[in-house]
Amino acid sequence: MKLRLSKTLPAIFIAFVFVQSLFYKFSGSYETQFIFKTLGGWSGFTWFGDWGAYLIGSAELIASILLFTRWHGVGALMSVGIMSGAIFFHLFTPLGVVMPEFNEVGEMIGTDGGLLFIMACLVWLCGVYLTLRDWRSVNSSLRNILGGI
Fold first, then answer.
1. What confidence tens digit (pLDDT) does each residue in 14-31 have?
2. What range does the domain containing 14 cover?
3. Which end of the chain is more exposed for a tag (fewer CB within 10 A), N or C?
4. Per the domain annotation, does 148 fall within a domain?
């Protein structure tokens, strides 16, 4: 039971964070627009400002589903990759660690106090744990895909 929970609880946490963010990414919320327009402008890839939320949201949804299949190692590795990007963009771009919060008409009403960044770090840690756990297991989905490296 303990062994099963050590895999299931981090997977549930990752999926919870990813799935609850889908509404924001797919509905074009002001927070999402701020994040992806900032990154699109900074990178020079204006398409990322328009389509990045859909791209990242789709990847998060796929990772969330995979975490509860026999391909859970792939889902865990995807979560590490997605969150590595998020952490990088928070730390090394104009985006910053503390995100603004907006009301229903798009006016900034405060900040999240860095909560989005903290959640990204926690998801990253859970993803690394699950990736290493899968890699070390006898039936590793990652090693099966990568040809037994």
1. 999 999 999 999 999 999
2. 2-142
3. N
4. no
Domain count, the chain: 1
Within a domain: 149: no
| In-domain check, residue 73 | yes
Over residues 96-109, the pLDDT tens digits come to 999 999 999 999 99
DSSP string, 73-134: HHHHHHHHHHHHHHHHHHHHSTT-SSPEEE-TTS-EEEE-TTHHHHHHHHHHHHHHHHHHHH
Residues 6+ away with beta carbon under 8 Å from 141: 70, 71, 72, 73, 74, 134
Give the C-alpha separation, 11 to 63, whole Å: 10
- pTM of the full predicted structure? 0.92
